[in-house]
Design brief:
This protein is an alpha/beta fold. The two termini are about 25 Å apart. It has twelve helices and ten strands. The structure holds pyridoxal-5'-phosphate. The site of pyridoxal-5'-phosphate has 14 residues, from helix 3 and helix 4.
């Protein structure tokens, strides 16, 4: 089925511009392996994030997550766990398994949809010898309002705090600091579905220069200079062509975020005073999409049908939550994950585009107005 308003519609530079970049790459005869485009993109990302941040680009966020987990915790033998929310995209828990660890699922908070700090603290208190690390998810790319407390708790227990901020490039934490600068390392995705889209790609950010060096080695087959492979690495390099698109996307990215936020405000104005809500902090995010929380599954499902009838494509992120997916059926969890299961039944995510036409915004707000009546 085709939609008048598709769930995503990234804006890429025109073919004339991309064609020039491609000509540059061919002229340089340098297609991947940290060429001039990748190096310039990397330093532009460091500039964007501010002084002291080291960026390592990757071919995807998933490979970056594998690299961060292995490079910080060491390669696991499946005997230790990494705390992770189940209300996330499967790539995080999958990266935990690839690095040799078992995911230990925690629940989320009902208002913010962010991972439950109380659950993590209980797990750290009750099974300290079992836990190797925490992979916090910044839900939907929204900066966790309790990040300072997470950092303190992780510090108190001496447990590394890693952050999956895949959809959060361009988001801010409530204190105004940039998403990307918390924990030991944060990971971004630049996949076509994210607000900062280059096709396939990602990055890890850390203030630890030595960790950045190990991440660089991981993505390059574990090579270290003349010695060859010193750890189990992989090919996770970002191609020159994607880096070139990233450089173009960075220009005017601030305007793109403002445009996304203004679409979000139009949706918010429409649902004001009704029973539909949005997770806190979404206004300071780069607004990958607008997640709407409905009072129950019945009205959520009805809203889904209404959007579909109006030819607006929606998604039920994150449904099913990761612990309910077959690959993770046997994975450990700290409790019943009730809030995760309830909220995954009540959420519908609707499209937010960078250059959304007034007609498209009106189509979405029109359906929202109607949803308000039956919610
Ligand atoms: C998109 C996403 C990923 C995966 O990113 P890729 O670049 O596609 O590997 C991982 N985690 C979360 C939370 C995501 O939203």
């Amino acid at each position: 089925m085709s939609f008048d308003v598709p769930f995503i519609r990234p804006v890429f530079p025109p073919s004339r511009i991309v064609g020039q970049d491609f000509d540059d790459i061919v002229a340089a005869n340098w297609y991947t392996n940290f060429g001039p485009k990748e190096r310039e993109f990397r330093s532009s990302l460091e500039e964007f994030l501010g002084e002291g941040n080291h960026v390592v680009t990757f071919s995807s966020a998933t490979i970056a997550l594998m690299g961060v987990i292995q490079s910080v915790l060491g390669r696991g033998d499946q005997s230790k766990s990494v705390i992770v929310p189940s209300f996330t995209f499967a790539a995080g828990p999958e990266a935990i398994q690839w690095a040799g660890y078992a995911p230990l699922f925690i629940d989320i908070e009902p208002e913010s949809l962010q991972p439950s700090l109380a659950d993590a603290e209980r797990a750290l208190r009750e099974r300290p010898s079992e836990i190797a690390g925490i992979l916090l998810g910044n839900t939907f790319g929204i900066g966790n309002p309790q990040m300072a407390m997470w950092e303190r708790v992780a510090g108190d227990y001496g447990i590394p705090l890693l952050v999956d901020s895949a959809a959060g490039f361009g988001s801010n934490y409530p204190d105004g600091s940039k998403v990307g600068t918390a924990g030991l390392a944060e990971v971004f995705s630049f996949h076509a579905t994210k607000p900062f889209a280059i096709g396939e790609g990602g990055a890890a950010v850390t203030r630890d220069a030595d960790l950045a060096q190990r991440l660089h080695s991981f993505q390059n087959f574990g090579f270290e200079g003349e010695r060859g492979a010193v750890v189990l690495g992989i090919n996770g390099k970002l191609q020159e062509f994607n880096a070139a698109i990233g450089l173009r996307q960075l220009v005017g990215f601030g305007g793109a975020i403002q445009s996304r936020r203004s679409v979000l405000r139009a949706y918010r104005d429409e649902i004001a005073g009704g029973a539909i809500s949005m997770p806190g902090g979404i206004d300071e995010s780069s607004v990958c999409f607008a997640s709407l929380v409905f009072p129950n599954r019945t009205v959520r499902d009805r809203a889904e049908r209404e959007f579909s009838a109006a030819r607006v494509e929606t998604r039920t992120y994150y449904f099913p939550p990761v612990h309910m997916q077959p690959q993770f059926a046997l994975a450990d969890r700290v409790n019943e994950l009730r809030t995760t299961e309830e909220m995954s039944d009540r959420i519908l995510s609707v499209p937010v585009h960078q250059d959304m036409s007034e007609a498209a915004v009106a189509l979405v707000t029109g359906v929202l107005r109607h949803c308000k009546d039956f919610c």
